[in-house]
Amino acid sequence: MNKILLVEFLTEELPSKILNKISNEFSNILYKILKKNNFLEKNSFAIPYATPRRLAVSITNVCSISHDKIIRKKILPVSLALNNISKAPTVLLKKKLSNLSKIIGIKLIKLNQLEKNIEKKVEFFFYNHIIKGILLKISLQKILEEVISKLPIPIIMNYQNFNNINNTQKIFCFIRPVRKLLILHGDNIIKINLFGLNSSNKTLGHRFLSKKIIKINSAEQYSDTLNKKGKVIANFQYRKKYIRNLLLKAAGKYKILMPEILLDEVTALVEWPIIHMCRFDKSFLTIPKECLILIMQKYQKYFALKDSNNLCSKFLIVSNLETNNPYFIIKGNEQVLHSRLLDANFFYEQDKKKKLIDRVPLLKNVIYHNKLGNQFERTLRICKISIKISNLLNENSKLVERAAFLSKSDLLTSMVIEFPELQGIIGGYYAYNDGESIEIIKSIKEHYKPCFSGDTLPKNIISIILALSDKLETLVGIWGIGLKPTGDKDPFALRRCTMGILRILIEKNIPLSILELLNNTVNIFKKNIHFNNPTKELLKFIYDRLYTLLNKKKYKFNEIQAIIKKKPDIISNINDKIIAIHSFILLPESKKILSINKRIHNIFKNIDSSFLKNKKIQYELFKKTEEINLYIIIKKIEPKINILYSKGEFFKILKLLIKLYDSTNIYFEKVQIITQDILLKTNRLILIKKLYKLLNIIADLSKLIQ
């Protein structure tokens, strides 16, 4: 009989940052294993539940006995299985059937139990074996043990549980100690033993608001029973939505700062959410707003409020306790925040007494990496890279150098030591306090951007140059001393660093050569005895990241490949190239050009690349009108293409290439390229190589043929 299966682990407090992920994995893994074992129907679905101290899942339409499973085994071709004359089973067939019978655990399979069928024009013998269904109550113990073993738990905890069977303590492993085990199939308890606990239909509600044991009469009533009797909203996503609505209502006229990551964490911390409005002293609003928001959101899990565009002295908290008199809850939270803000204000006022420029020499005392020196040496490298980039872009190198020189000095401030997340941001405030120019202030504030996927980019050109310089110094320096990313490990965030460089170059339309940027940075490290030139490896790494970046924009796979195969050195226009390629493929005439390109590509597959090196077309060797005509049209179109390329008009280039089709097609019909005459063969190969280069000026067209 099909019923809802409910499994709940009642635990000690679960880690809030990963609760939703663990809950979803628990649900997905159990669903997949049940499906694999034929316990589910086509319309079955899982509902995960998660609160600070419970992991649960209910799955609909779970069979009490799994469906029979038919296993079809291919035995042998009939020609090998039967004797040609007598048609009796051969020794090979008998051996095969004997082995299969032992594996399946049945009596010897007979010839008349086999089925003939043709596969790829060959007649085979097949054997169909039916595996009978198994009771859920028998299988569930092993299934749940498998689920537990597959859960992606970052740190496993060992704990003791009392074993009622033999009155002993036993060690168990899980993310947190499990205190109760609830398993229901419909209204029936499935008896199993996990974590030293026997399953039942009983659980507990809210830790403070519901102290009695709660009986769940049926799996279908789980969520409603917990809500009414236990003061628990069990469904994570419903609870999150409920909290969001409560917060918006409580905020009223104020704008609430409600990042998803904070909302997720708060949802994971409460079972019965109650919202309260709190306040802090207005004098603390002189502290940089980023610091105030950071303390409220990250350290206290509070929701900051804005009045128009300015931060106000009110904030919202999500409590896990319902009471008629919330005075002590509100006051307690206000006092905790007051203490944190007192410290922050003290650090801020003390830091302002010393200028950033006076802190720079002290960076000599801060080690960056034992093979790359201290932060002062790093600062000087960033200065040199910044000057080179500013010269390439014809920007004010002195302004850039000043910004680079001051960029790391806030690492020595009390604010950054206490709140590392404020690097750069707090430096911008101190630069303003020191009377630095607006460009320098913004550059120091923004030079770490983008800090994460989807983060905003630095805005003004000085900020962009400093951000590029900082990231290039990190990428080249760390890779050059042999600390490149391996597998999932990337302790120096070089993948994120590379993505930042690529995003800046593309989204801010910075027409700089990737190779030149790398070479300029490598030259700054050359005197370092620990450093090895990583340019070759880095280029491959950069283009791999570029593929990832473009793939996120949902461009077509073959179009991205076509562009990246050319290893474009300047990528500021790469989006325009992909759009042009996409539009070109939609033209009916594009197939003609792709076919011509494929033909040339196949010719050069068998030609040694060094054969044509440093060789030029000799006009006097052209013997046929068709090759002269092709040469003339290439010479005529080439300068037009170069002009259009410099203007970034890539679609016009691709349309212009279509004009080459007729001359090229006739050329291939009338001219034999591979001849016994070496001079003639070479000259013709050089001509089509020139044509091939023109055809693939934007992208490798061979990648567009699927």
Describe what this molecule looks like in 3D.
The chain folds into five domains: 3-65 and 135-230, no CATH class; 71-131, no CATH class; 236-343, no CATH class; 356-552, Hypothetical protein af1432 (Orthogonal Bundle); 576-703, Isoleucyl-tRNA Synthetase, Domain 1 (Orthogonal Bundle), CATH 1.10.730. The protein is an alpha+beta fold and 706 residues long. Strands 2-3-1-9-10 form a five-stranded antiparallel beta sheet, with helices on one face. It has a four-stranded antiparallel beta sheet with strand order 15-17-18-16. Strands 4-6-5 form a three-stranded antiparallel beta sheet. It has 26 helices and 20 strands. It is flat. Helix 11 (375-392) runs antiparallel to helix 18, helix 16 runs antiparallel to helix 17 (494-507) and helix 22 (590-605) crosses helix 26 (678-695).
